[in-house]
Specification:
Layout (H helix, E strand, L loop, with lengths): L4 E4 L9 H16 L3 E4 L13 H12 L23 H13 L3 E4 L3 H13 L16 H9 L5 E4 L6 E6 L3 E6 L7 E3 L7 H11 L4 E5 L6 H11 L5 E5 L2 E2 L17 H7 L3 H9 L14 H7 L10 E2 L2 H14 L2 H12 L8 H8 L11 H10 L9 H5 L1 H15 L6 H15 L4 H12 L7 H17 L1
Parallel strand pairs: 1-2, 8-9, 10-11
Antiparallel strand pairs: 3-4, 4-7, 5-6
Length: 475
């Protein structure tokens, strides 16, 4: 195989989305499978929608996932630089002019109003898919000069050939064919001098020697346009592969309205998902391994990744599976790794505690949490107890409950060391003295200490609080 070079080329109009992360991952695995290069470049021509910090966020979220570009805006190869489209406008102008000179492109002076009127006229006449009517194709130089004098800045349109099929073998979907009559002459350079996506991406991919393009199926209709540009320049086109969409549990395309699903990698980082869990989940979101296996290291993924096993059916985002995977990886962390992972989520709650005590306390929740931030919901009521709900007040305000709290406090005050055995002993002594058990024994103390009905085992709660704080709350 030729030298494999693939790319992930996001727009800095937002942050790294689930779909983008999956595309980047499959490109990265493809490159590493065949000892190739994975390139990160930026398509920043939609200037008005660009967000400050989005480029760096996308790149660093990829690196967090373990998807490390061989080349990027921060690690350019001089042979292929620059890596941002807005830094090479002169290059696109040069190639657009070459197409004009060859008769493959032409200037278009149509206004937005004229284009919209043409579209409406075509629809009214029964044309289901309107396209540009080529009214500017044969303008004379004199006519062009007159239009320029009126202040009209032209776009540049590519002249698509008539009645031709454009065919290619898709790495995922097999043989695909389009007819040029269904496409029409499309704009390659806007009137503001900025290239359109379908033109710029071809120039970029050619100059960067991209050999394979793996991307989402929403780009499938762009492919014949891009192939025609390759044909006009007599350049070799890369191999294309179009991955299926990601759907929600209702079978609909994943959208930002799916509030039950976190959409961006930055959200997963902030909520305490582990990168290896996200990587592993994305790996199986549209790709099936030969063996029946759920968990892969990055090296194992390099070894067994086969683009032929990319799914041809939509991939369902199973949130429960992702949570289960993350929980699995949390449980696998060593004490040192777990402390590093969990400490940022509890630092303010456990201010003043030593790392040893923080580890001891947070380890109590290790088997329960599905993501790091969840520990706050479990730990907060212990550190900062809730106000007791009015409906629960009768549980602690009756005479029996008051005696349970008083008696348990009496026995706890006699204890020298707080541990599981001594706390159990306090409960047993309270039970024997008052002849109470079960909910009548434990619930009044739990509510007094935390303000809520459920949570950690009582001995863990008292261990976290320590003897002094526990007695203070009971009294």
């Amino acid at each position: 195989m030729e030298k494999v070079r693939v790319r992930y080329a996001p727009s800095p109009t937002g942050y790294l989305h689930i779909g983008g992360a999956r595309s980047a991952l499959f490109n990265y695995l493809f490159a590493k499978k065949f000892n190739g290069d994975f390139v990160f470049r930026i398509e920043d021509t939609d200037v008005e929608r660009n967000i400050p910090g989005a480029e760096a966020s996308q790149l660093h979220d990829l690196i967090w996932l373990g998807i490390i570009p061989d080349e990027s805006t921060e690690k350019p190869n001089p042979k292929y630089a620059p890596y941002r489209q807005m830094e090479k406008l002169d290059i696109y102008h040069k190639y657009a002019q070459m197409l004009i000179d060859k008769g493959y492109a032409y200037e278009c002076f149509c206004t937005e109003e004229e284009l919209e009127q043409s579209r409406e006229d075509q629809l009214a006449s029964g044309i289901a898919s309107p396209k540009y009517d080529r009214r500017c194709l044969n303008l004379t130089e004199e006519e062009k000069d007159n239009l320029r004098k009126k202040g009209i800045k032209p776009t540049i349109r590519i002249k698509m050939p008539d009645h031709q099929d454009i065919e290619f073998d898709d790495l995922v979907r097999g043989h695909i064919k389009f007819n040029t009559d269904d496409i029409g002459d499309w704009v390659i350079m806007k009137s503001n001098g900025i290239p359109t996506y379908n033109f710029a991406v071809v120039v970029d991919d050619h100059l960067m020697e991209i050999s394979h393009v793996l991307r989402g199926e929403e780009h499938l209709s762009n492919t014949p346009k891009q192939i025609q540009v390759y044909n006009y320049f007599n350049w070799e086109a890369p191999k294309f592969g179009h991955m299926t969409i990601i759907i929600n549990e209702n079978g609909k395309k994943l959208s930002k309205r799916d509030h039950d699903i976190l959409q961006f990698m930055s959200q997963y980082r902030e909520n305490g998902y582990l990168p290896q869990a996200i990587f592993n989940f994305l790996l199986l979101l549209g790709w099936t391994p030969e063996e029946n296996k759920e968990f892969f290291t990055m090296d194992e993924a390099f070894e067994c990744f086969d683009p032929k096993r990319l799914s041809t059916s939509p991939s369902m985002f199973d949130n429960k599976k992702l949570i289960w995977m993350n929980q699995h990886y949390i449980k696998q962390l060593t004490d040192e790794q777990y402390l590093s992972f969990i400490k940022p989520f509890v630092a303010d709650l456990l201010e003043g505690y030593s790392d040893e005590d923080i580890l001891k306390i947070t380890n109590m929740f290790k088997g329960e949490i599905s993501f790091g931030k969840q520990i706050r919901d479990l730990l907060s009521p212990i550190i900062n107890p809730n106000e007791i709900n009015e409906q629960l007040l009768p549980i602690i305000e009756n005479d029996t409950a008051k005696k349970v709290i008083e008696t348990f406090a009496k026995y706890l005050s006699l204890v020298d060391e707080i541990n599981q055995d001594t706390i159990k002993s306090c409960f047993k002594s309270t039970q024997a003295e008052l002849n109470v058990k079960g909910k009548d024994l434990y619930m009044p103390i739990r509510l007094k200490l935390t303000g809520i009905e459920h949570g950690l085992e009582m001995y863990n709660i008292i261990t976290i609080l320590g003897k002094e704080k526990t007695l203070k709350r009971l009294k």
